[in-house]
C-alpha cells in the first residue's frame, strides 16, 4: 500500500559554495514537481539523494562533507 502523496514544490541548497546547484540537482533521486508530475519523494529517495551528494563532494576532494536534509 502506498503512503500519502506529496508534492515537491522546491529543492534548495544552503551552504553550498563549491558545486553548482544544477550539478547537485542532477544527482538527486528526489524530483521537483512540474506540469504533468507531482515530483518524486520518499524517505528512501531522500536518503539516496543525501548519499549521492555526499559521494559527489568526496569525489571532488571534500572528505569531511556532511549533508543534512530538511523537509518542510
Descriptive key words:
single chain, mainly alpha, 2 helices, 72 residues
Short description:
By secondary structure, the chain is mostly helical.
Folded structure, characterized:
The protein is mainly α. It has one domain. It has two helices and no strands. The longest helix has 17 residues, at 43-59. The chain is elongated, with a radius of gyration of 13 Å. 4% of the residues are buried.
**What fraction strand?**
under 5%
Name the helicity range.
25-40%
Distance between the termini: 24 Å
DSSP, total strands: 0
Instruction: Please describe the biggest sheet, giving its number of strands, its sense, and whether it closes into a barrel.
Output: none
If helices are DSSP runs of H or I spanning 4 or more residues, what is the number of helices?
A: 2
Q: How many structural units, i.e. domains?
A: 1
Shape label: elongated
- Report the C-alpha radius of gyration, rounded: 13 Å
Please write the string of helix (H) and strand (E) elements.
Answer: HH
Overall mean pLDDT stands at 86
Amino acid at each position: 500500500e502506498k503512503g500519502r502523496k506529496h508534492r515537491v514544490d522546491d529543492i534548495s541548497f544552503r551552504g553550498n559554495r563549491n558545486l553548482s546547484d544544477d550539478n547537485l540537482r542532477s544527482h538527486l533521486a528526489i524530483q521537483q514537481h512540474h506540469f504533468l508530475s507531482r515530483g518524486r519523494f520518499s524517505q528512501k529517495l531522500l536518503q539516496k539523494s543525501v548519499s549521492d551528494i555526499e559521494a559527489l563532494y568526496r569525489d571532488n576532494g571534500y572528505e569531511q562533507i556532511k549533508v543534512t536534509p530538511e523537509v518542510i
